[in-house]
Specification:
The chain has four helices and no strands. It is mainly α and 84 residues long.
């Protein structure tokens, strides 16, 4: 088992998927917006699974999003309720 909880065979298969998706991203001009988004989203999931972010990185990203959302009046109260 690798440090990310996957077997070496699973890691190899995901690396193949990653290379295939990256090849598609490189040719994204041939696809519609929906397909580009789906390919990019799936590639991000594969990359995250292969090397998950550190908890501190996730906390920083969450704080940044909450900070920017809190600037919107209707959402400020929701953020305050959840943060309490």
């Amino acid at each position: 088992m690798a440090g990310n909880g996957m077997t070496s065979a699973e890691v190899k298969r995901l690396r193949v998927c990653e290379r295939q998706l990256q090849a598609l991203v490189d040719r994204a001009a041939y696809f519609g917006a929906r397909e580009r988004w789906e390919i990019s989203d799936l590639l991000a999931l594969v990359k995250t699974r292969l090397s998950p972010p550190a908890p501190s990185e996730l906390e920083q990203k969450t704080a940044k999003i909450i900070e920017s959302v809190a600037q919107i009046d209707g959402l400020r109260q929701a953020v305050e309720l959840v943060s309490a």
